[in-house]
């Protein structure tokens, strides 16, 4: 049975509190799962929080001891690109950060807490980035499926066919290919780790909690029942005016969830934790912005329920 855990973002105290709440006990650098259980981490272990090294130590130790599994979040993917030179732009990385462009400044700021805690270019930094490459882009465990931002069968197949699947590390050739703008591999990687986004009309943008402007809005494409944009647009509080008057595109790519339940993170939900549907739960409830770190205690059920959600209530 699995305990699926949402985005941690360096919040080591919340991670330790949640694991204790779930009945895990300290063991070496990590924690030992209750008999018959295993943790599944949904990625985004790093950036933002004050305890990023400790979070990484806990998760890696648990994985090494067979107590946990973990998939790659967009922040781990970005951390790899942050240090890997772009073969098409000598002197710059796949995730730009060396110049003085708006994008480079944004990327340095977003990754700054991790860099300052680990030490840019240090042996520890190199080692953690190498470990990030081992994390799979998704997991299909039979009874459940896990992707960081969105489950999509076509995206899974595209990455599988290219050779990036659980058990195979992300090599340089695939890393470069998944950064090629407009390619099938880039679209598949983005679908799983960043979700579905809709470009906003000129002059409109979403401003996040750190003041960064995003010219796309995230869409909850699993809400196949939706008939209006506001029902699927994942807009931070105070930014609702940016989608006012916009219609749901006629070709909106809904992805109904059938089969085994799906678990995702990534989307910074707010309010009392709850599942999205009987087949999908988002477990990112903004742990790095004052919200709880949330888990789902899965015991083999084919349909999900709110009473299986768990978090430390203090």
Provide a descriptive summary of the structure in words:
It comes from Achromobacter ruhlandii. Residues 88-110 are annotated as: Disordered. Residues 88-104 have a biased composition (Basic and acidic residues). This is Calcineurin-like phosphoesterase domain-containing protein. InterPro entries: Ap4A_hydrolase, Calcineurin-like_PHP, Metallo-depent_PP-like. This protein is of the alpha/beta class and 314 residues long. 27% of the residues lie in helices and 16% in strands. It is built from eight helices and 16 strands. It has a five-stranded mixed beta sheet. It has a four-stranded mixed beta sheet with strand order 6-7-13-14, with no helix packed on it. A hairpin with a 5-residue loop joins strand 9 and strand 10. Helix 6 packs across helix 8 (184-193). The chain is globular. It starts with a strand and ends with a strand. The model has no long low-confidence stretch (mean pLDDT 95).
